[in-house]
């Protein structure tokens, strides 16, 4: 009811603004990195496994795609990520030393549960779920579990569940790195410090909402949008495009920026907004030349640029500056402005933000 909404217009907006709390709760009480965060048997399981298979749907699948970057770079373990509804209908090559990870807000998604059972039927018994509901089928079915503490999520479009999943998956990357001997105590301390600063960093990002509202007015009149990201921000671009589709019904697609020239550039005209995630990372210079490719075709760039990335507003280039560059945790911070952009664009279009047409919060049938 209205009382629960407090100052917010919709549950989605409330849930976006709960993210500093949700992420803070998810990491609260963690003094050091230890397999026991994932369950009693985790130490033995993590020692045994030498590869990871992630199974999920929707937004949870994009959390999995992001985790692949973290786990491969920090823990040096190969990761494959599969859409749960596809995995069980193809012939794959199972290996018993696989850590099978399901990611699910609800823990009841039929496709993800079926994919888990399929993996088990192929002899993969080492299973972990990252889940937001402790009493769910997924938690009962998996050997190991990490519970995100997003709290109840009501908006159909997932927001706080996603950022808490990312937080949990980052913790997992650190844990696997530690078990496999790829993390020094100094690195562990540094990562923990960054994690503890996340709630404050998220709050700082939320403060840019008024600037995003101004952009949303313009987006509301569009029928198409492109989202660009590179590296570990490519899955964040996918999630940004999904949010916009789900609630505003604007057709949106995401591409890794280097792939533009292999097709989507043909779509770019003055009426195509191109949302660009521009973290101040090793790929920034490459991204800037991708942005030039868009400008040269008259495309309108809407850039979320980190502090110090030296991207400034000019003809056709609209910039909102992110408060800080957040290193390896940057995907979590860059998610928030994309959620707000989708949210305010939907409000401007007058769609049913919390209950978009044709979609359900939890899909418990195939
Ligand atoms: C539905 C929801 C999405 C969600 C997906 C997976 O499609 O609308 O927001 O990402 O299911 O749900 P899960 O509960 O497994 O994360």
Major sheet: arrangement of strands = 2-1-3-4-5
Can you tell me the overall shape? Answer: globular
The chain-level structural class is: alpha/beta
Order of helices and strands: HHHHEHEHEHEHEHHHEHEEHEEH
Number of strands: 10
Mean pLDDT figure:
96
Protein name: Glutamine--fructose-6-phosphate aminotransferase [isomerizing]
Domain SIS: 42-182, 215-356
Subcellular location: Cytoplasm
GO molecular function, one term: carbohydrate derivative binding
What does this structure look like?
The chain is an alpha/beta fold. The chain has helices at 2-5, 11-17, 19-27, 42-48, 58-75, 84-87, 110-121, 137-141, 160-179, 185-206, 209-219, 234-248, 284-296, 330-349, and strands spanning 51-56, 79-83, 98-104, 127-131, 144-147, 224-229, 251-256, 273-278, 300-306, 317-322. A 5-stranded parallel sheet has the order 2-1-3-4-5, with helices on both faces. Helix 12 (234-248) links the parallel strand 6 (224-229) and strand 7 (251-256). Helix 3 runs antiparallel to helix 10 (185-206) and helix 5 (58-75) packs antiparallel against helix 12. The model has no long low-confidence stretch (mean pLDDT 96). The structure holds 6-O-phosphono-alpha-D-glucopyranose. 6-O-phosphono-alpha-D-glucopyranose binds at residues 57-60, 104-106, 109, 112, 156-158, 359, 361-363. 6-O-phosphono-alpha-D-glucopyranose is lined by residues 57-60, 104-106, 109, 112, 156-158, 359, 361-363. It is found in: Cytoplasm. Keywords: Aminotransferase, Cytoplasm, Glutamine amidotransferase, Repeat, Transferase.
């Amino acid at each position: 009811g209205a009382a629960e909404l407090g100052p917010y217009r919709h549950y989605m907006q409330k849930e976006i603004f709960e993210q500093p709390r949700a992420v803070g709760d998810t990491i609260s009480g963690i003094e050091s990195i230890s397999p026991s965060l994932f369950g009693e048997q985790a130490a033995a399981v993590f020692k045994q496994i030498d590869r990871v298979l992630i199974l999920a749907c929707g937004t949870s699948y994009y959390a999995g795609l992001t985790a692949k970057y973290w786990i491969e770079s920090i823990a040096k373990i190969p990761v494959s990520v599969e859409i749960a509804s596809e995995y069980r209908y193809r012939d794959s090559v199972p290996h018993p030393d696989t850590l099978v990870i399901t990611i699910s807000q609800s823990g009841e998604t039929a496709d993800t549960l079926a994919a888990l059972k399929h993996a088990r039927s192929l002899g993969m018994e080492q299973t972990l779920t990252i889940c937001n509901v402790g009493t769910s089928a997924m938690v009962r079915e998996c050997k190991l579990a990490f519970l995100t503490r997003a709290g109840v999520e009501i908006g159909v479009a997932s927001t706080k569940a996603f950022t808490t999943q990312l937080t949990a998956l980052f913790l997992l990357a650190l844990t696997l790195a530690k078990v496999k001997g790829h993390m020094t105590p100094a690195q562990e301390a540094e990562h923990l410090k960054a994690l503890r600063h996340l709630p404050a960093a998220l709050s700082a990002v939320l403060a840019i909402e008024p600037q995003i509202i101004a952009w949303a007015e313009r987006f509301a009149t569009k029928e198409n949008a492109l989202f660009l990201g590179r590296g570990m921000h490519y899955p964040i671009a996918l999630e940004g495009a999904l949010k916009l589709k789900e609630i505003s019904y604007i057709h949106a697609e995401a591409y890794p920026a280097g792939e533009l020239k292999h097709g989507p550039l043909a779509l770019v005209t003055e009426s195509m907004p191109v949302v660009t995630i521009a973290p101040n990372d090793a790929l920034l210079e490459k991204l800037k030349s991708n942005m030039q490719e868009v400008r040269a075709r008259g495309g309108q760039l809407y850039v979320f640029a980190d502090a110090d990335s030296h991207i400034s507003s000019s003809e056709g280039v609209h910039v909102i500056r992110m408060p800080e560059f957040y290193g390896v945790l940057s995907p979590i911070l860059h998610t928030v402005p994309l959620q707000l952009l989708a949210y305010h664009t939907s409000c401007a279009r007058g769609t049913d933000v919390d209950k978009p047409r044709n979609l359900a919060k939890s899909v418990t049938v195939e």
